[in-house]
Amino acid sequence: MSHLPIPSTLIALEEALSRPTEYVVEAMTQLEGDLLILGAGGKMGPSLSVMARRASDMAGVKRRVMAASRFSSAEACNYLTEKGVEVFPCDFMKRDALQDLPDAANIVYMAGMKFGATQQIGRTWAINAWLPGEVCTRFPNSRIAIFSTGNIYGLAPAANGGSKEEDVPNPQGEYAMSALGRERVFEHFSIEQNMPQSIIRLNYACDLRYGVLVDIACKMREGRPVSLEMGFLNTIWQGDANAQALASLVHAVTPPLVLNVTGSRTLRVREVAERFGQILGKTPVFEGTEATDALLSNNSRSVSLFGPPKVDEEQLIEWVATWLLQGGPLLNKPTHFESRDGKF
Q1: What is this structure's pTM?
Q2: In whole angstroms, what is the distance from residue 338 CA to residue 101 CA?
Q3: What's the burial of 254, exposed, middle or buried (CB within 10 Å: 0-12/13-18/19+)?
Q4: CA 340 to chain centre
Q5: Which of 74, 71, 88, 79 is nearest to 35 (CA)?
Q6: What's the rounded Cα separation, in Å, for the pair 40 and 44?
């Protein structure tokens, strides 16, 4: 287990989420040109953008690090600006909006729609599968790291250790299908335009303010039942996910390199809840029947490139519990990881 200090304040948490690993600093040394993060206003975007800025500075590389998003929160804009990231408010769905953005040799693509997808199917497909083509047309000479999701695999037997990158996708529901559409559109332009790309199939990043572990811990704290229907999970510290996504840029190729980015262990929901119960002083209440399959990914390929995550699952569980015990703020954005039908 790693022995990193537990972030105890919001400032300490933001610092930990954006702290570059050695391999990220090395990646920023190898990359040439500026970096643009598209869709940087979400839960992961601000800390990833600041990590890129910090790593570039530590590498002694002079580059612009730019973040573009609708930025519904002025707080996110101010935070990024204070940390030396250039901010470009932009609604990618408006005509010519992409044309007004600066050119960049390197792009991290984080735009996407998940929650509310079932109620806005057309918009979901437009954002997840149409917009990528517009981005590739606007930035035909850029190297791109693309955020995707492990949902494209569908349910996998827990005993098998999770889906691998070469497995045939089996997406369930409009969100997962449109996410696979996003990958396929990027893949087309990667080959057509000789664009080096990496595709990050993320399976549950965990900040201490949101994530699958936070969902379970909050239910434990409040005495609400924990569902066992999705009885297994993978998760990864958001700082590790940020680092792997940024470093994947130097491994981008055509056709795209696909990477599962998640934790190394298959966690059992029942055991996670029981561990939270020990720390929080609560007795778990369960509902539903544990299935033998779940949305699970095998991270051996990313481990071969970057090593195991710096924060392991046991430490992450302890961090989440301690954050709750200290009254740390939450984003109140449930992951809905319990969904087995792909509806979000």
Answers
A1: 0.94
A2: 38
A3: middle
A4: 20
A5: 88
A6: 7
Note the pLDDT tens digit of each residue in 220-234: 999 999 999 999 999
Question: What are the residues facing 293 on neighbouring strands?
Answer: 157
Domains of the chain with CATH codes:
10-325 (3.40.50.720)
CA–CA distances in Å: residue 291 to residues 155, 159, 168, 262, 340: 10, 11, 21, 21, 10
Omega before 255 cis (within 30°)? yes
pLDDT digit string, tens, across residues 138-156: 999 999 999 999 999 999 9
Task: Quickly tell me which residue has 């994530």 as its tokens.
Answer: 211
Q: Residue 163 and residue 151: Cα distance in Å, rounded?
A: 10
Q: Which helix (H) or strand (E) holds 212?
A: helix 212-222
Q: What are the tokens at 156?
A: 């996998």
- Burial group, residue 106, by CB count within 10 angstroms (0-12, 13-18, 19+): buried
- For the sheet with 106-109, list strands across it: 86-89, 65-69, 35-38, 106-109, 143-149, 197-202, 257-261
Report the candidate in 72, 188, 174, 191 with the shortest Cα–Cα distance to residue 127: 174
- 178-200 confidence digits (pLDDT tens): 999 999 999 999 999 999 999 99
Following DSSP, what letter does each residue of 310-332 receive, concatenated? SS-HHHHHHHHHHHHHTT-----
